[in-house]
Amino acid sequence: MGTWHEYLKAKGTPPEWPYPIKFGEESEIEVDVLVLGGGIAGCWAAISAARNGATVALFEKGDVRRSGAGGPGCDHWCNVPANPLSRVDPDDWAIQEMEALGPYSNGLGFQIQCREDWDTLLEMEQMGGKIRDDDDEYIGVEGRDDETKLMVSPRYGVKAGYSPHDDWKKPGFNPPEKRNNVVLRIWGSTFKPILKKECQRLGVKVFDRTMATSLLNENGKPGGRIVGATGVNVRTGEFIVAKAKAVILSMGGAGYLWHLDMEHGGHSTMYSRNESSDTTALAWRAGAKVTMQERSMLSRIASGLKHKWYTGGADASYENVPLVDAENKKLPAPTQGWEDGGAMFSNQAHIITEIREGIKNGTYKLPFFGDFASMKPEESNATWNMMLAEESTTRVMVQTMNENGFDIHRDQVMNYTFIEFQPSQQFREAARGGGLITDWNLMTSVDGLYAAGTSLFSPGDHSFAASTGRYAGRKAAAYVKSVEDAEICRNQVEKEKERVIAPTKRDSGIDWKELHNGLARVMQYFVSEYKNETMFNLALEEIARIEENAVPRLFALDPHKLMRSLEDLNMIEHAKIIIHAMKERKFSNTTLGIERLDYPENDEEEAKNYLVLCQKDGEIQYERVPIRYWGNMKEQYEAHNKDYTGVYKPEN
Hints:
The protein is of the alpha+beta class. Helix content is about 30%, strand content about 15%. It has two domains: about 20-70 and about 90-120 and about 195-300 and about 430-645, FAD/NAD(P)-binding domain (3-Layer(bba) Sandwich), CATH 3.50.50; about 310-420, no CATH class.
């Protein structure tokens, strides 16, 4: 019968679209700063730019109130060494965090996070976000400070110079006096609605259900100064042209290039479904430089059919929940998350090895359980009703289990970590490594184009997104005061409009899911665990066939499917960038996730550089930029932020 839509049409009962269809119609707006992506970073960027005197508009594919990976909630505010309970210096901690994350981390982003994260959190509190136990619900819980009522995360991190990882079996493991206190527990489910409300209060033009489709360059030439962007309303199909002096990209990362089984959750549930290579594709077409595109890893957190993120055992939000085996024998547990494919952090690999050996020799009996019942009541209460109820990936789980009689003081939760089969290539991901390379103002290589959050290369977590978004908004607002208006190239707009609405002019052919599945298969087959030149070339040949034979047949019967179709086209663009970057890296490197059969050895000199790519006149340009290109982090940050005065003071 063909596709589902063809079946419905044949039966005479096609689905009715509940909104007016406006394919081909156009509207225009003009602002100082345009923010693309309304997640955590985008909201903070819009608020910051508006507070610094700019007129601002915000495009978001979903509803800003709950959109993005952090929309439903967040339970940890990480890397906040300037908080009053911290025992480390912010500048020292930025260096330590960068070094801990490896040679390809983003020192600019982590320096900004460590210097401004506490200010950002205080600003969130001023807007109405909950960051303290003001109602005294958790008195007596480990990590709660009775004076400030802040809740330190007791299982995260240690002071600089102390490593407990060799002492994890000893009593007093990770004792309080050794902890750094740089991670705070927060009520993150309160944050996103407040951010949207603040955007609206400040006069930000919020365009919910609007997908950004392209960046507009001066004179229509890629690489030229950014003068605006285009978008499409994903409910009406109306085309929008936005003129702006600066644009901030905050549309997340990839996440779906290797995934295909969406009906069964075969995509990364840790991140928003709307993360679909939009940032990379738009920036690439506009001539901006990207880096870390060659990096990919096995997806180790909450990917699709995996259940371990929801089932306890020292996994981030679960913090101190002990794991026991089927006979109630306690398992060794690290201080942070751990996984079936190996530890999230390399210093815990020995724990995984011991558990696996214990399973094989009968020391530990499967299955395992998160043992809430053995915990002190106040601790299990804080973990279950504060941490898990605030985290975006577990909030629904807590609600559902509570409604069905789960009792944290009596019951255990099955942990699937070591019993669930996963075909590894199906759950590969771009590992949140690739993104835009920037200067200390978070401006990209294209004048007027900024990046924040997961749009940056090697980004961090929720608070990283918040602090870099806030920072980028401030910098963009300063920039627009120094530049003159530039005209939009109408020819560039018309070409983009034609590209965007092309799938709506067809009523049969290839549906977005079919195209997505085909691309995912190419990535799974040819860009997976083992790599060589032949496999890369086959991948590019298959993608070329998709572009030649499938893309011209792509159809969308409503604006939502148009959005998914445009995402497919962005993913195709991103896949090609990734493959070309991998081809250029002629070595094997564990940190980058590259295991090449034709180049099995690491190239130590080559590995000292970021591989930076951009396109110029249709050709890919490669550049090597030394890691740590940003210089002395403390000195450079202070040189670029001489006028920064800290937390926003609301008007009386």
